[in-house]
Amino acid sequence: MSDTPRPAEHPAPMEGGGAYNRNSAVQASGLLPAIDLLEQAARAMPVDDGAGIVIADYGSSAGRNSLLPMATAIAALRARVGAQRPISVVHTDLAGNDFSALFRMLESDPQSYTASDPAVFPSAVGRSFYGPVLPGNTVTLGWSSWAVQWLSRIPAPVPDHVQAAFSRDPATRALFAQQADSDWRCFLAERSREMHRGGRPVVLTMASDDEGRFGYEAVLAAIYGGLLAMQGEGLLAAHELARMVIPTVGRTRADFAKPFEQKEGGNFEGLRLAQLEVFSGEDRIWAGYEQSRDARAFGASWAAFSRASVFPTLALGLEAEPGADRVTPFMDRLEEEMAMRLAATPERMRMPLARMVLTRA
Questions:
Q1: I need a surface site. Which of 63, 110, 280, 300 has the fewest CB within 10 A?
Q2: What is the pLDDT of residue 15?
Q3: Do 43 and 131 meet the contact criterion of CB atoms below 8 Å apart?
Q4: Sequential DSSP letters for 36-61
Q5: Tens of pLDDT, residues 107-159
Q6: For residue 244, what are the CA distances in angstroms to 128, 132, 173, 328?
Q7: DSSP assignment, residue 138?
Q8: Vertex 178, ends 174 and 184: CA angle to 5°?
């Protein structure tokens, strides 16, 4: 029996309490090119006069980066079906997601897609999109941004990092690649089952570039360096650090296309890959630094984003202590360590992204 510490089985939801919405500017990178595809899909796909219109937002988190995509899709559909026809928007994420923050934002934010359209009805489902989320043949249009890079499960510990893409262990990288392939096929199969014929899911996600590079080198070096420093100070035990993994992947262009290319006619479980592009996302935090030359703000912004997005999953590696909250002090200290390291040598992050349109045959 191996004595290697096992990581948590599944990733954690994003940080709640509105933290993710406040610190999700990184994910805004790449949204506009993908939103263009969503608008085109909404204008081109068939809309049955007798069927309900359902837009599914797969991996909504607390919803900040869903406002513009949903508003754009609704406007394109309104131009086709008029102002009175009901449109349902279903936001989906893990059961532990902060859906309360999402609905508070929909109610109060002036940019909310509900603000000027009383015939739009938002709802939420707390389920993983790697399994069934909605009934079959009910979804008209799908959207997923910055979500399918998260694996459904953590296949193994990473012996020399927290991100498998930077591990020097080929067996570890192979296990994560296998999980990524399996999860991508599950995602596609479930979306095909849920979509109306002619329905179109649009996906924006992290990728690897054509040289196989994951990107975010300095960010991940700062996270791992901060964790090593905390271990050196006795704030983390060695077995706790060994359990900490960020289960995100950057699939390549070939990885995205593989399920379709292996099927005759390019049809995988009833879905076709209509369009796929891997491109470089804009580092908005770097753009802000170029304007201000404020290195501390640069480091703090990347650290706050990382705290909201990946620190909750890292914290799953902590040992629970009766009567003690170890998670908040852990996240506070790691945020400080990370911000300090990034502020010392600011650099633009390489951010490979993929945008694609799928079509239900």
A1: 110
A2: 65
A3: no
A4: HHHHHHHHHS---TTSPEEEEEET-T
A5: 999 999 999 999 999 999 999 999 999 999 999 999 999 999 999 999 999 99
A6: 21, 28, 16, 16
A7: -
A8: 140
Asked if 174 and 86 touch (Cβ cutoff 8 Å), the reply is no
| Residues 73/42, Cβ–Cβ less than 8 Å | yes
Domains of the chain, CATH where assigned:
19-360 (3.40.50.150)
- Whole-angstrom Cα distance, residue 196 to residue 173? 36
Instruction: Please give the C-alpha separations between residue 232 and each of 50, 214, 223, 237, 312, in angstroms, as whole numbers.
Output: 64, 28, 14, 9, 21
Model confidence over 67-107: pLDDT tens digits?
A: 999 999 999 999 999 999 999 999 999 999 999 999 999 99
For residue 297, the one-letter residue type is A
Amino acid sitting at position 276:
L
CB–CB of 194/137 below 8 Å? Answer: yes
Q: pTM for the complete prediction?
A: 0.94
The dihedrals phi and psi of 234, each to the nearest 5 degrees, come to 85, 10
Q: Which residues pair with 220 in a beta bridge?
A: none
Quickly list H helices, the chain: 19-22, 25-28, 31-44, 67-81, 99-108, 170-194, 217-232, 238-243, 253-261, 284-292, 295-309, 311-314, 327-344
Using DSSP's 3-state secondary structure scheme, residue 206 falls into strand
Which residue's entry shows tokens 């949903």? 70
Q: Find where tokens 């300090």 sit.
A: 340
